[in-house]
Amino acid sequence: MSNANYVTNQDIMLLLAKRIKEYRLAARMSQKEMAEKSGVSLATISHFEQGVNQNMTLNNFISLLRIIGMEQRISDLLPELPMPPMALKQINKFIPKRVRRNSDDTKS
């Protein structure tokens, strides 16, 4: 499945569940160990990885990310704006919309 096929929320949740499972297995951790370390119930983790539970809370998901050491990647989802919109609006007020030349400016 390519990234272009992730068009529904369900598709994205299934992808996230698959990735959590891959990282958990790569860390050689059982679902039970992940549940104990994260505070998320074993049933929730199991259902999430199987695609049964597609209503994982954000709080639980972040707890799972912490256990696999990926919580810092959350900021990649919504990076900080380069400049706050209100500051940009203030700067745009000072940018002229057109340039007017005095008759003195046209003489060379």
How do the strands and helices of this protein lay out in sequence?
Layout: H1 9-26, H2 31-38, H3 42-50, H4 58-67, H5 74-77, H6 85-94, H7 103-106
Helix pairs in contact: 2-4
Description:
This protein is an all-alpha fold and about 110 residues long. The protein is about 60% helix and about 0% strand. It contains seven helices and no strands. The longest helix is centred in the N-terminal third of the chain and has 18 residues. The termini are far apart. The mean pLDDT is about 85.
**Number of helices, counting only DSSP H or I runs of 4 residues or more:** 7
Contiguous uncertain segments of 5+ residues: none
Q: What is the H-and-E element order?
A: HHHHHHH
**Fraction in beta strands:** under 5%
Overall shape: it is elongated
* DSSP, total strands: 0
- Secondary-structure class: mainly alpha
Summarize the biggest pleated sheet: none
Instruction: Give the overall pLDDT as a whole number.
Output: 85
Portion of residues within helices: 55-70%
Rg, Cα atoms, Å: 25 Å
Gap between N and C termini: 65 Å
In brief:
This protein has 108 residues and is mainly α. It contains seven helices and no strands.
For the structure shown, list the relevant keywords.
single chain, 108 residues, mainly alpha
